[in-house]
Amino acid sequence: MANPERPSPLLEIITADYQNFPHNQTYSIYAEDVFFKDPMTEFRGLAQYQKMIQFMTTWFKDSQLDLQGIEQEGDRIKTQWILSWTTPLPWQPRITISGHTEMILNQEDKVISHIDVWDCSPWSVLQQHFVI
């Protein structure tokens, strides 16, 4: 487990990326063939990961990714978070998803697997768009 007084450089980078999300992400911490999965999508490759973040930058307004916790044990990092954004619909719904991320590192400390687990269903996220 990381020293609670002084996080590892990788944990510091991830923490900063959450604070800046979705802008100025540190893609260099990801392996070229990184595997990504969440309840809506699954793919492999850093280029696809960058496209997904660009999509979020373009279509999700006022995105905020609040880090609730982060810990590392060996080659695994787990974060707890709350993601929120405003969808650019005429009534501007504010969407919120809580969940956690499980990352696995290779021997070079690059993220080779990034799996997001939501505390709600994709259906409940869709429903948030229609609560006025």
UniProtKB/TrEMBL annotation:
Position of the signal peptide: none
InterPro entries assigned: DUF2358, NTF2-like_dom_sf
Pfam families: DUF2358 (PF10184)
Top-rank lineage group of the source organism: Bacteria
PANTHER family: OS04G0578200 PROTEIN
Name of the protein described by the UniProt record: DUF2358 domain-containing protein
Organism name: Prochlorothrix hollandica PCC 9006 = CALU 1027
Organism lineage string: Bacteria, Bacillati, Cyanobacteriota, Cyanophyceae, Prochlorotrichales
